[in-house]
Amino acid sequence: xxxxxxxxxxxxxxxxxxxxxxxxxxxxxxxxxxxxxxxxxxxxxxxxxxxxxxxxxxxxxxxxxxxxxxxxxxxxxxxxxxxxxxxxxxxxxxxxxxxxxxxxxxxxxxxxxxxxxxxxxxxxxxxxxxxxxxxxxxxxxxxxxxxxxxxxxxxxxxxxxxxxxxxxxxxxxxxxxxxxxxxxxxxxxxxxxxxxxxxxxxxxxxxxxxxxxxxxxxxxxxxxxxxxxxxxxxxxxxxxxxxxxxxxxxxxxxxxxxxxxxxxxxxxxxxxxxxxxxxxxxxxxxxxxxxxxxxxxxxxxxxxxxxxxxxxxxxxxxxxxxxxxxxxxxxxxxxxxxxxxxxxxxxxxxxxxxxxxxxxxxxxxxxxxxxxxxxxxxxxxxxxxxxxxxxxxxxxxxxxxxxxxxxxxxxxxxxxxxxxxxxxxxxxxxxxxxxxxxxxxxxxxxxxxxxxxxxxxxxxxxxxxxxxxxxxxxxxxxxxxxxxxxxxxxxxxxxxxxxxxxxxxxxxxxxxxxxxxxxxxxxxxxxxxxxxxxxxxxxxxxxxxxxxxxxxxxxxxxxxxxxxxxxxxxxxxxxxxxxxxxxxxxxxxxxxxxxxxxxxxxxxxxxxxxxxxxxxxxxxxxxxxxxxxxxxxxxxxxxxxxxxxxxxxxxxxxxxxxxxxxxxxxxxxxxxxxxxxxxxxxxxxxxxxxxxxxxxxxxxxxxxxxxxxxxxxxxxxxxxxxxxxxxxxxxxxxxxxxxxxxxxxxxxxxxxxxxxxxxxxxxxxxxxxxxxxxxxxxxxxxxxxxxxxxxxxxxxxxxxxxxxxxxxxxxxxxxx
Length: 816
Prior knowledge:
By secondary structure, the protein is mainly beta. The chain contains three helices and 48 strands.
């Protein structure tokens, strides 16, 4: 029979919620609550739907229904109750169900039981042989589930697992990870869930027991308590390390994370983090402190023999601070800051601080450099303005000089001098575009201003050409720059061709102080310089497409740019702060200014041409190749820098790391390919006129089977005529390098497999980083155990090796 009838009240909605309330006990495993589904059953408000083989009403109006072949079904307000037999009182909302009971909530969550008793007042509700499957795949079972009151739910003899409890054929299976408890109580008033006699099991084998175990209620977004601990072992001097983070929630918008690192061989390190969210922004501050001696590899007695993993030097205070704030109120302005400093240049490496180099502000410090800054931005649809100031701290080992790296005693490594890095302030960037087209094209006005101050003198590549070495402690060059620029461009499409004429006008003013005598003259230590450049040109492209009978498409796109500029007269006294390196690629080859920043700019007449070929076939299969080059009317010797021969430091040579100093630039070759769904790759190279590769990188990713994968990356740089350069006045000379990086995982039997990654330094014939391990990965747990070693030269504390363990539990998160 089927029955649709108006109901007297919302009793069933409340009654079914008592069964769903028991399910909520499993919700701590959920990262977030599933979304509520919209009503799609077509029932009007105030109606009950009943589908049963037998049914009727009692004298008191109670609905009685049963199913002989199929279970009886009762549906109200998007909630469904299925059972072999059920009763429901529309007046009170009380009811009961027995036999293969299934309660389905509006969000799709399902509760199973052999018997359910529901009270319309939600003061009591009982489910016998309770079981549920959560939206994230976790399972929860209990002998009984009882709702004691409005705020207290209880499970007796409960079992929770993030893993499937049934095999693929439907037979019962032992979960890899599970937690059982004699009693589980959810107290919504206390916003906590308490377990009594909790036993943690791996494949039914008990591995851990707690008499009482508690965690926040699933309705709590954040609550105070211990987080997942991290356990590591390091042969670099710390030994066994245990980090047990504790989260203290002050308010919904503020918390503290206290995370002491306890080490077996050295003093502990206390890590703290404070977070505060405001109405229009956030502030996050991390820090750490310890008092300890230096440790690592060191020659204690000076006999030339290195003692391993020793403590040396005086005991000292060691600390770090990593903080940032970002505020975005209503309106066009936003502002922020970063504060990043450490007292010990080796602290992050020695204590394995997690992710110390982050991009949190307007400007970023690169790897192994910390940045402290304040900034403000204003952005509208047609304008942009930023004002900033920042200072840097370097943790880099000097990449040049015979004594820079202490290969035998890393503790004596020579670091980059912070005084050689500039203090920048202010740094102003702005641009504006009119609302409509100008002369049929887009007009953009730009302005920039920068002031840089250095304490320590730096020669090439900041100053070009290099000057004689100055006495130690010589004052650094200070510079102030003001730039104005007008950029106009128009797009014309005709006959399938794309033609873009452009005009670029630019002027720079420089004010310089503390120039070295050989550059400025014995009496003149300062200079005021100006320069300008006017460029007119046109970009051209004409894509051609051919479709073959097989369905494949081939596109040929010739690209060309012709530009004419005056000679900007690059003065060697102008420091090159923001354009020291350049890597040509397919898009950058056609830019008016191919150097980053403002200090280096190109002039004269030049012709740039290239050809891009693209093929597409099958379902998503594709391959593309670009080849291009630029020609100019004359050489640009100002783009060259100086390097010294390590074998004869007095012998120096000018070289071109950019590939743009000659009349013909390097060839740019760039390719991408995806011949199959599981294979894709790309490659990029710059090749000189003789066919020698100066710089290249390539990568290939592949997948096979269900979860097997591998990745290979190759990088090479041969732009420096000497390797390594040995010029003592050079702040940072480019190093030639050649690396191969590979990583992958291969499953051998079921969930068992192997995983590994490695970075191989071809020049040094050494694996700079390597990991190899045993892997177990199924639907609910991923576990890795293996060995790793770090031999990178940028790691100032020397090689590090040891055993690593990584554990990721479905619904629980992961360790590092």
